[in-house]
Amino acid sequence: MSDVKHSKVLILGAGPAGYTAAVYAARAELTPIVIAGPEPGGQLTTTTDVENYPGYPKGVSGPEMMDEFKAQAERFGATTVYDVAIEVDASKRPFVVKCDSGTYTADTIIVATGATAKYLGIPSEQRLRNKGVTACATCDGAFYRNQDVAVIGGGDTAMEEAHFLTRMCRSVHLIHRRDSFRASKIMQQRTLDNEKITVHWNRQVKEVLGEDGVEGIVLQDTTGGPDETLKVTGMFLAIGHVPNSSPFKGVLNLDDAGYIIVDKPGSSYTNVEGIFVCGDVADKVYRQAVTAAGTGCMAAIDAERWLAEHA
User: Which residues are known catalytic residues?
Assistant: First the structure.
């Protein structure tokens, strides 16, 4: 693609936030272009079953849901381009976005690039992703009712996920590679006081066992002791997320973790007039498809109103 393409609304990211923004922008006759990014459909494309999104009483697979989001947006006139944004120039209007395959200009930009969960990177873990290995207890915990599971991590998120899982699981093993938690004191105490949580100090996952599903994990002692095998049917990663905000460094205000900062609380405005943000790239608390979709709606409405004022 050699020609520069212009749009009133350029949406970066094709997950629940991006496609919801596209639906609203398209219905407002703003003919948005959606740049799908490196993971079209977002994190839901790696999720086998979604049971907590309203409107799907029997559940739905993540890829199927995102296909329906895309079809709905395109029905109203949105266009999806399978490309990746690598650089954003917000010094002048229209804004300029350079992608792998060409350049786009836009009157407004909606950033919906999401975040990527951190994984351990061992082969057996990758092989069993969505077959017992997951990075979202809130999303998938209900599938492990009355089962034994493990949570990997030592921060507040790991504590919260472990406590959430105790409501439905028989037991929860909390695996931490150090001899002390980095979580807040109150969360540490709640964890240590919970009879359904067993803490394994100075341990890291060496291997995930199972062929078609998780059957156990092998723990390596970080102090040099012998390996330990735990029989669990689920492994929940809680070692953090990485917001996909690298093209916006030096352009938008980011917090210390790289999440884009919303300039006006309760809105999708950023520090740059005409650039809006939604979804997990700005949300380090909820990280749910339904909350991402909600903020996608907000971003499209904010962009529409901003365009009306600056036409």
Answer: 136, 139-140
* Contact assessment for residue 109 and residue 10, using Cβ atoms and an 8 Å cutoff: yes
Q: What is the dihedral of CA 16, 133, 204, 190, to 10 degrees?
A: 70
Closest by alpha carbon to 276, among 286, 263, 285, 289?
263
Residue with tokens 């066992």: 209
Q: What is the C-alpha to C-alpha distance for residues 155 and 189, in angstroms, rounded to an integer?
A: 13
Distance between CA atoms of 97 and 219, rounded to whole angstroms?
A: 45
pTM of the entire predicted model: 0.83
Q: What angle do CA 199, 170, 157 make, to 5 degrees?
A: 50
How many angstroms separate the CA atoms of 250 and 125, rounded? 35
- For 33-60, what is each residue's pLDDT tens digit? 999 998 888 888 767 678 889 999 999 9
pLDDT in tens, 113-145: 999 989 999 999 999 998 999 998 888 999 999
